[in-house]
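Support reply, case 0932

Customer input (verbatim):
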Amino acid sequence: MDVWATDEVRQALALIADLPDQDMHRCFFPGWGIRAHGTDGPLFEIAFCFQCHNLMMRGPAVPAERQRLTGFDADSPPSQELLRMFRACEGAPQNPPS
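Our regenerated output:
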């Protein structure tokens, strides 16, 4: 967490206002995720939203160009198997997102 001064806030808001539009589902409420750790700490994490069919990868082992929302076919057999594995985890939410 950081606190921005007035000039930094103005700069950030100007950048946000200049972001180009992109057609995509916008919910991205990831209900599931994977976090990988190595011997020296976190490597990466992937958050999955099976509602909007997007995932987000981030972490020190993820190249900068891959640290963005990426679409995936949530209805494909591999995705459905991954969702099954998530749901089978001990302590999984009782009413998770699809």
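We compared this against your earlier run and they match. Two observations from our side: Residues 26-88 form one domain. The radius of gyration is 17 Å. Please reopen the case if you see a mismatch on your end.
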